TrEMBL record:
GO terms for cellular component: plasma membrane. This is Uncharacterized membrane protein, DUF485 family. Keywords: Membrane, Transmembrane, Transmembrane helix. The chain crosses the membrane at residues 25-47, 59-83. Coiled coil: none annotated. InterPro entries: DUF485, Inner_membrane_assoc. It comes from Daejeonella rubra. The keyword Transmembrane helix applies. Pfam families: DUF485. The keyword Calcium does not apply.
């Protein structure tokens, strides 16, 4: 691979936009997940009685919320994979064509 061509691509506006977009998406999903998880921890720390509320004979709200957080993490992971497969990968492919 020609280092001059590689340097040209790395300095291109298209590549910088691609990197910036990926960081924005990644950090957004990270902060959303941290907000949800830390919110759950704060509720545990400051309002345990709320999470003790029974929803049936053998289940309480804490279990449902905990499972919800797990499913939410799967959801945002799936959204990231969808974005990466449908948008990011095609942009990377276009940049690779230039090599």
């Amino acid at each position: 691979m020609d280092s001059a061509k590689t340097h040209e691509i790395l300095q291109s506006a298209e590549f910088k936009k691609l990197v910036k977009t990926r960081w924005n998406i990644s950090l957004s999903f990270t902060f959303v997940m941290l907000f949800v998880y830390i919110g759950f921890l704060l509720v545990i720390a400051y309002n345990k009685d709320f999470l003790k509320m029974p929803l049936g004979d053998s289940i309480n709200l804490a279990i449902v919320v905990g499972l919800g957080i797990i499913f939410f993490s799967w959801l945002i992971t799936g959204l990231y994979v969808y974005w990466a497969n449908n948008y990011y990968d095609s942009d990377v492919h276009e940049i690779k064509k230039k090599l």
